[in-house]
Amino acid sequence: MFPDAAIARQKTGNSILGTPSARNLDSPGACSFNGLSPDFFRSVQPVSQTTLPPIAAETKRDQEAPYPEDAAGPRLELSERWLRKNLDGVAAAITLAGLALRLYVAGRNFLNPDEALHYLIIHQSNIWLTYKASLSNAHPPLIYLLLHAWIFLGKSELMLRMPSVLAGTAACWFGFKWVQAVAGDAAALIALVLLAFSPGTVILSAELRAYALLLSCMTAALFFLARALEEKSVRLVWTFSAFLYLAILSHYSALFFTASAGVYALARIADLRPPRTVVRAWIAGQAGAAALYGVLYVTHVSKLKGIMAVWGAPFSSAYFHSSDGNIIRFTASNTLNIFLFLFSERYAAWALLLAYVAGIAVLFARAFIAARNRTPGDRLGILFLAPFLAVWGAALIAIYPYAGTRHTAFLAPFAMAGAGYSISLLSRKRLWLALLISAVLMAIAQTGDKSRELNTSAGDTSPGAMAAAVRYMHASIPQGETVFVDYQSSLPATYYLCGPETLFPYGVFSGDYFDLQCQGNPVVSLRTWKIATAGFPEQFEKMARAHNLRPGDRVWLYQTGWGELLDAKLDRQLPPFQCLAPQHFGTGVVVIPFVVGPDDRPLTASSGCSH
């Protein structure tokens, strides 16, 4: 067994030194520390952990936790020592591996409809028009303004997703440093592995959306809040506030984070009683956050009431309905779904959910004991649980969905920190075992079902498949012939069929139909999100009459996006369409030629086929 002092390491800016054990000082040939005798060290009373700030005390306990001699052989003992000595390097390597995985996923799929909508908004002639276009969507403007500047560097799928890739990678590192500060090295290492390789966080870091930016700003804010409370630093309080503001401007779900972090900080301030300058800085920062939300409400949210109602329609099961009557079942089912979204594979999700619950229970039990002993606690139970309670409460009154989707992605750092804390206790804070358990869990998670957030469907949704579809359409569709799309397909069409350099003023998406011009072909889009078998002939007929199409005119249906493609059922359910000639490109794109019939209804365009 190596001495406790060998396990402890020095941290930059906050050295916590291990103390040589009595057995070492008594042993023959013990080092004299520049001539000081062992008697000198025996005469020095060790500093009580209760005299340290709670965060520093927790980290000290983690670093000085003795490695059990009977639990592992010399090789594991050596591995533990190496990990503790090189922890930051190991964490950097894990973060870089997470970056590589995100780059791979980001380049593997074509843009889904929501990503294409983001591109449509950011690809305006100036930043003011980008801001105005962003007001039509249910998200704050920061991501659009950043991406408007970013696209001058490139417009490929990978380049468009690169800010999310980098932000998601930053979230891993900031998450590691935050958990290290509040819960120790073992918990931090576990949380880092979960953040770096969780299917849910990887997917969100590989999409043209705001969620990775939100997570990076949140974890940075949490890290600086932890440091500010520990060091009682006004400068760090303002740094926390700056990242809090960026999180607020990234996504409206940051409201739950803002409220939870505020409650936690208030409890910690009451315990620690920092200088008044620190308290005043925190109050001013919170007032700034409230003012920022006020501006967002007046300039944006208040004008979106109709859109928000449409946006919330698919999330009925994510709201609690009193008619269902079973709030426990609602809570248990949807909490599991949140972990399933993050970790994909059911066994891994269950294991980490149970670890999270156990971690919360231990933290509150520890807080109860600290309160009875009248010693300050770290309040981590509040911090890890409050965001879940906040969004759960919002779901009870149908304000925000409590669901296993990207909309609750802001819960990821708290779920992973809570589970990491629990697993670190299970591993007795041995780094090698913490790393092994978390790596096995993430290896299992990667075998889970493909998330519906990743793209349109399982199978080939590569940029090459979409490029093949576009080549086919350009070669097969004469100029002047109509391309017919539903709303979700119109969004990728603006990027792929029309080309990423084509600029569309956002006002073109208005009226009964969205009419575009792409490479000499009129593109007519329904306002309906997705064309389905039921009602398709009627939708086609109305479109043909509204655009003065004549019998015999050819119309090309282009469809991509979420859900089943039209031809999967159309030819089986409607006899006139048994001779469909769909052209599939991968599993997520289909092009189907039709002709306008005598009654303006669609007929198949295949030659030699009777109707």
Number of domains: 3
Average pLDDT across residues? 83
Radius of gyration: 29 Å
Q: Which structural class best describes the helix and strand composition?
A: mainly alpha
Work out the helix count: 26
Which percent range describes the beta-strand content? 5-15%
The major sheet is characterized as: 7 strands, mixed
Number of strands: 7
> Uncertain runs with pLDDT below 50, 5 residues or more?
1-56, 63-71
Descriptive notes:
This protein is mainly alpha-helical and 611 residues long. It folds into three domains: 4-67, no CATH class; 87-445, no CATH class; 463-604, no CATH class. Helix content is 58%, strand content 6%. The protein is built from 26 helices and seven strands. It has helices at 4-7, 22-26, 38-43, 54-64, 74-85, 87-106, 113-122, 127-134, 142-150, 157-183, 185-197, 199-204, 211-231, 234-250, 254-272, 276-299, 305-312, 327-343, 346-372, 380-396, 412-426, 431-445, 463-476, 487-496, 536-546, 567-573, and strands at 482-485, 514-518, 521-525, 554-560, 583-585, 589-596, 602-604. Strands 1, 2, 3, 4, 5, 6 and 7 form a seven-stranded mixed beta sheet that branches. Strand 6 and strand 7 (602-604) form a beta hairpin. The N and C termini lie far apart (85 Å). Residues 1-56 and 63-71 have low confidence and may be disordered.
